[in-house]
Structure formats: structure tokens, C-alpha cells
Amino acid sequence: MQKKINTDEAESSIKYAINRKLSICIIAALILFFLLSPSHAEIYKVKRVIDGDTLLLINGEKVRLIGVNTPETKHPQKPVEYFGKEAHLFAKQMIEGKEARFEFDRQKRDRYRRLLAYVYLLDGTFLNAEIIKQGYGFAYTKFPFKYMEEFRRYEREARENRKGLWR
């Protein structure tokens, strides 16, 4: 009888030790995942839309939408491009004066020191994608980004459905 109790206690102790070590490993892996994650998000309020793919935040920071290129409206050396005013107005109606969640990728700033971000309205609408889906901009694929294939598909679908600038 004494031997049976000791065996049960030993099995219980081993299971406890294994479960504890496994739990510690899982927690450590989750902490590392979040610490080493290339992106994080913050909430900001948009003061105004500069043009269809560039925003000015209340704190004075300029933000360039990742993966989106809209026709120019404010370029110092270029005239207003076809559908530029419409793209600007679309972005303005979607985000100006509103708070949104800004998610950053591996590269947080461009060569002009603008923040590079994926922007989500508080209702969950993904602004970068919506601009392309509605035909107000192109998928900007000069530099790789995590939604590149989706944005290419959205642009192709907008073209096929003759949306926005593809009319």
C-alpha cells in the first residue's frame, strides 16, 4: 500500500513539473512574440487629409498610408492629377477629424520622415484597402509590405468593376 501511494505521488509531481515547465515556455514564447513583433498599433486623431494617401495628425505628425498611391493634388512640381480631387475628398470624408488605429510595419518612417501606417477606422474599416477597393488609388508596390497581394487584387477588382478612377 505504501508503494502505491508513493508511485501516485511521484506521477502527480512529474505531471505538475511538466505542466509548469510547459506553461512557462508558452508564456515566454508569447512574450517574445509580442516584443519582437514588427508591428504595433496606436490610436491617433486625424486633423486633416493632405491628399488621398497622406494625413496630418492632431500632434503635427504626417502619415503616409502604406501600400497606397493616390493621384496627386498637392505635389509642388506636378499639376493636380486626374481623379486626385475625388481621392482627396474620399479620404477626407472617411477619416478627417476622426480617431483611428494606426498600425506600423517594420519601417516606421519614410525618407521624408512621415510615419508609415496601416490605418483602421474605429468601426474596423481598413482605410488603406478601402481607398484601393473603391478605385480612389493604386496598390503601391515599389516596396514590399504585408498586404501587397491583397492590395493588387483590390486594384484589379476595382479596374474590372470600373470603380472610381477606372470609370
Structure explained in plain terms:
The chain is of the alpha+beta class. Helices cover 40% and strands 22% of the residues. A five-stranded mixed β-barrel has the order 1-2-3-6-5.
Q: Quick gist of this model?
A:
The protein is built from 4 helices and 7 strands.
Structural class, please? alpha+beta
Task: Briefly note the CATH topology name of the largest domain.
Answer: OB fold (Dihydrolipoamide Acetyltransferase, E2P)
Which CATH architecture of the largest domain would you pick?
Answer: Beta Barrel
Q: Look at the structure and give the mean pLDDT.
A: 87
Number of domains: 2
Secondary structure layout:
Elements: H1 2-36, E1 40-51, E2 54-57, E3 62-65, E4 68-69, H2 84-95, E5 99-104, E6 115-121, H3 127-133, E7 138-139, H4 148-160
Parallel strand pairs: 3-6
Antiparallel strand pairs: 1-2, 1-5, 2-3, 4-7, 5-6
Q: Characteristics of this structure?
A:
167 residues; alpha+beta; OB fold (Dihydrolipoamide Acetyltransferase, E2P); 2 domains; five-stranded mixed β-barrel; two-stranded antiparallel ribbon; elongated
